[in-house]
Write a structure and sequence with these properties.
The protein is of the alpha/beta class. The chain is built from 13 helices and 15 strands. It starts with 10 loop residues before the first strand and ends in a 19-residue tail after the last helix.
Amino acid sequence: MISQPLPRRTFLRGLGTMMALPLLEAMTPLSAIAATASKKYPNRLACVFVPNGMHMPTWTPAAEGTGFELAATMEPLKNVKDSLLVLSGLTQDKARPNGDGPGDHARSASAWLTGCQPLKTAGADIHVGISADQLAAQMVGHKTPFASLELGCERGRQAGNCDSGYSCAYSNSISWRSANTPVAKEVDPRLVFERLFSSGDPSETAESRQRRERYNKSLLDFVMDDASRLKKQLGMHDQRKLDEYLDGVREIEERVARAEKVNLAAPTGGPMAQMAGAALPGYMEHMRLMADMMVLAFQADLTRIGTFMLANEGSNRGYQIIGIPEGHHDLSHHGFNPEKQDKIRKINTFHVTQLAYMLEKMQSIKEGDGTLLDHSMVVYGGGISDGNRHNHDELPILVAGKAGGTIHTGRHIRYARNTPLNNLYLSLLDRMGIPAETLGDSTGPLQGLF
């Protein structure tokens, strides 16, 4: 057994590989484990974005408070209901035209986490504001190897006109490092995996990967000697936790490899190649791979802040996987056609099902007397409510996770009309120890969460 605590930043090392570890009991003095069980786990913040609005009649619960029942679209979340807050009445005013005319999709994405009115331009002079996730990254990102993690499932241009005179950067980005700088999201699962679980040296990572492929070895094969030495020093609980973590990394590595083979064998130029780039997996597996890697990054404390765009705003992706070949954006302009509305509801439910997959995975990972989900805050939603009307009030927003037991979950809360969405972000930033006084158009912390 280890007599002295392991450093929090302990890595498994191998040839061209350096892998972070999840938080282990051995990283805390034994005398302090009980006293710090609720404090040693950091709060994480993830923001998951969906485009084109929601079929609100099947999203919004009928009742308020703790006695609410999940509406049809949220039914896949039944196993994590007690960890949910459904928030109605929130508004992103800066996604409205406010004199700028058409372009609701571009505004809804760029304002979602900033609460700022984007400058209407298709040129290089883009301007909106810092996003909540990047404010958090600036304040606490130095505590982890990666300040933040930005993921997506569709590539997107950062220049050119994508929506009625608005730059493509607005539609394709929710994370903004500054008013003029969108943070590029990564859509290739292989690149995300190599970034998180390989050496930090790009040239060494490439060399390491080539060596693994040449000898048909897993990344884990290079660190197993180090892992075996470490396990001999760990208690039974930590040994089990380490094994579970390494199994999770190996599973993802194998899934990435399988997905690459499938897509490399597929005809080029198809919808997936056009939307997300060559050699990427099918859409559902793509989302789940990305979600799994964000979860593992949180578990290993590689980062505490992440954003995930399930699709770009205005995406016209078809959903053959659920029998809907029509484009999502086209269907969102349903004109109150019942058949189109039903298809929108099915697309919404499909996305929520992927969220449920991610949340249940977080709920399954034990941390002290709680779970990874208990020590997280996952915001899910978008900047448009009814896609047919392009309205930006009564937004579909939920928060999952208990922020270390400080958020009172299992409720549906309705706020006064036009309550700024950014008030929510102020409150969540406070749970991360970031006392921001204002963000975008916020008017103060959102009441009733804690």
